[in-house]
Amino acid sequence: MEKICVQATKDGMAEIIRSLTAHLEACRCSGKDRMEFEIAMEELLVNVVHYAYGDGDGDMTAEYEIIQKDRRNVSARIVITDEGIPYNPLDREDPDIT
Hints:
98 residues; alpha+beta; three-stranded antiparallel beta sheet; 2 helices; 3 strands
């Protein structure tokens, strides 16, 4: 499992995504799979960068592994951790959808 700890900034996010991309290319993943994994990672990291530390500084850690049975059967396990402000969507009021 690959593990990277960086500052929770856009530059840190880019470093993690570059590492993921290199691993996906080494696995010879299809362009479609690579794009889907990169987007998933980016979505997770953007939440940390924009919300976890408010105006303060902090770190985030990305752990991931690429599981490939063959070129067409690829999955990833991604874990993002930070020490920022906790977010629980269940604590929010339901939106008014009327």
